[in-house]
Design brief:
It is built from one helix and 29 strands. The chain has one domain: Methylamine Dehydrogenase, Chain H (7 Propeller), CATH 2.130.10.10. Helices cover 3% and strands 45% of the residues. The N terminus is likely disordered. By secondary structure, it is mostly beta strands. Strands 2, 3, 4, 5 and 6 form a five-stranded antiparallel beta sheet that branches. Strands 15, 16, 17, 18 and 19 form a five-stranded antiparallel beta sheet that branches. A four-stranded antiparallel beta sheet has the order 7-8-9-10, with no helix packed on it. It is globular and about 50 Å long. The termini are far apart. The longest helix is centred in the first third of the chain and has 11 residues.
């Protein structure tokens, strides 16, 4: 496999030249005069929340009492909650596990993990009724499924799969598989193994997905080789998988830390910019690339904590959040020196807004 390159030269998170390039590529800051993140607190107590904006419509799914609920509306006014697949299996939620959402003008897809597998349903009537969609014949050994939609009606489901057993020399490593759809998630093709020529996957760490402006699928995951945990990045382009190692932590952990990476991508081609955040033991770290998709700068330790999130808004601005105790630290990757702390508890789902800026959505019990 032709590999992506990883540049670990000892230098800062972003050089002045790289920041200038980022500002040129991604445009001016949409929130230079204010905090970069607005908050939306749901009236419900929830176990997990995820959201997506389509035009001016905000779509929200969340887990509550082992069931999945859907709301639609705007950041200012959400409609009443609708149960998703009322008769379907219970939702496994907590930590990194929870429901996934993909919305278009015509349909909704919602997916969650069930014991030993995944459950995907589709609605063509704004969440009033739901129909089950077959993704894979695998009924056991499926963990940490992830869902994302791309251009030309494509939908991807990626998951950790134990069908091939553990890799030699490692106590936990599994494989990463994918199924894709070309009709908006109505039907899916055969399972494809993504890690045939890449490191094995730490089984209880959620993979992160992103689609770039050219329609390519990017996947970041935590690998396990000889029980050493690193962060990997895959690019899937018309069936061809290329890989790069983002971190060089040499973190030996005999088990699964249950902490996958976060990934966001903006721009395209040689102007592609990306940021990956992850946890090593109790330290939150990040690495970024502003010189095209194949070269990452040296990782930077941001602080101690368990929470980290990355997102890109509709103007192509990248934002990184991480724990700062009872506050949240942030860094705007498009403007030199723009970092600080928000008076927000570090939880919830980070969403980029089409017109610029960011929104964080969380349940009522998480509010300060």
């Amino acid at each position: 496999m032709a590999g992506l390159q990883s540049d670990r030269a000892p230098r800062g998170f972003l050089t002045s030249a790289a920041l200038a390039a980022c500002a040129l590529i991604l445009g001016p800051s949409p929130c230079a005069a204010s905090e970069p993140v607005r908050e939306l607190t749901l009236p419900d107590q929830v176990d997990f929340v995820r959201a997506m904006l389509v035009g001016e419509t905000l779509h929200v799914v969340y887990a509550k009492d082992k069931r999945c609920f859907y709301r639609r509306g705007t950041p200012a006014a959400l409609g009443e909650p609708l149960p998703v697949d009322r008769e379907g299996p219970e939702v496994i939620a907590g930590g990194e596990r929870g429901p996934w959402l993909h919305a278009t003008e015509d349909a909704l897809l919602v997916m969650w993990q069930v014991r030993g597998g995944l459950h995907l349903v589709r609605s063509n009537d704004r969440g009033q009724t739901w129909a089950r969609v077959r993704v894979s014949d695998r009924a056991e050994g499926v963990d940490m499924p992830a869902l994302i939609g791309g251009p030309q009606n494509r939908v991807y489901v990626v998951w950790v799969d134990g069908r091939d057993g553990k890799r030699a020399g490692d106590n936990v490593a599994s494989e990463l598989y994918m199924a894709s759809s070309t009709d908006g998630g109505q039907t899916f093709g055969q399972d494809v193994k993504l890690t045939e020529r890449a490191p094995g996957v730490c089984p209880c760490c959620q993979p992160a997905l992103a689609i770039d402006a050219d329609g390519k699928l990017w996947i970041s995951y935590r690998s396990s080789e000889r029980n050493r945990k690193e962060i990997q990045l895959l690019r899937v382009d018309r069936g061809r998988v290329t890989a790069a190692q983002v971190s060089n932590d040499q973190w030996e952990f005999n088990g699964c830390p249950m902490a996958g990476p976060s990934l966001a991508i903006a721009g395209q081609g040689k102007s592609l910019a990306a940021v990956v955040a992850w946890r090593k033991d109790q330290d939150v770290q990040s690495a970024s690339t502003l010189r095209g998709p194949s070269r990452f700068g040296a990782p930077e330790r941001l602080g101690r904590g368990r929470y980290y999130a990355t997102a890109v808004d509709g103007e192509g601005h990248l934002l990184l959040l991480w724990d700062e105790g009872r506050q949240t630290g942030y860094r705007e990757l498009w403007e030199e020196g723009r970092s600080g702390r928000l008076d927000q508890a570090p939880a919830g789902f980070l969403l980029g807004l089409p017109g610029g800026g960011f929104l964080r959505i969380r349940g009522r019990e998480e509010a300060r």
